[in-house]
């Protein structure tokens, strides 16, 4: 188990666009392992690589239904929208209402380099959108509606 330090809002790294992962090597699988450890340790439901200072398109999510690892994730379909309260491990102690799609379909690679597609509704759809936003330097605080 290896925990990484979670960067907080104000840190310029969180505002940068992450690079596509071209080769899934041991560095990437170690990053996935460390990110999952760090997310669980912090009681989060998702974590993106830039939050631990790595500008690569890598995300982990677990909304309580098992660990999802995404490399180079892209949203390929969305449906509906709804408002709910959202928080972020990089913005400790705060939350705000954000509009997100109700249902989202994501295409990504897994740690074996296979292309996967995953659909999520409600909280899972929200987590996909929130974490993929991180990869483009976007934080939920940019999208708060009230
Ligand atoms: Zn976040």
Work out the count of structural domains.
Answer: 1
Class from helix and strand fractions: alpha+beta
Distance between the termini: 38 Å
Bound molecules: zinc ion
| Order of the strands making up the biggest sheet | 1-2-3-6-7
User: Which fold name fills CATH's third level, the topology?
Assistant: Peptide Deformylase
Q: Which outline best applies?
A: globular
The rounded Rg comes to 14 Å
What does this structure look like?
This protein has 146 residues and is α+β, with helices and mostly antiparallel strands. The chain has a single domain (12-143), classed as Peptide Deformylase, CATH 3.90.45.10. Helices cover 19% and strands 34% of the residues. The chain has two helices and seven strands. The protein has a five-stranded antiparallel beta sheet with strand order 1-2-3-6-7. A two-stranded antiparallel ribbon has the order 4-5. The radius of gyration is 14 Å and the shape is globular. The N and C termini lie far apart (38 Å). The model has no long low-confidence stretch (mean pLDDT 97). The chain binds zinc ion (ZN). The site of zinc ion has 5 residues, from helix 2.
Question: What descriptive keywords fit this protein?
Answer:
146 residues, alpha+beta, Peptide Deformylase, five-stranded antiparallel β-sheet, two-stranded antiparallel sheet, 2 helices, 7 strands, 19% helix, globular, binds zinc ion
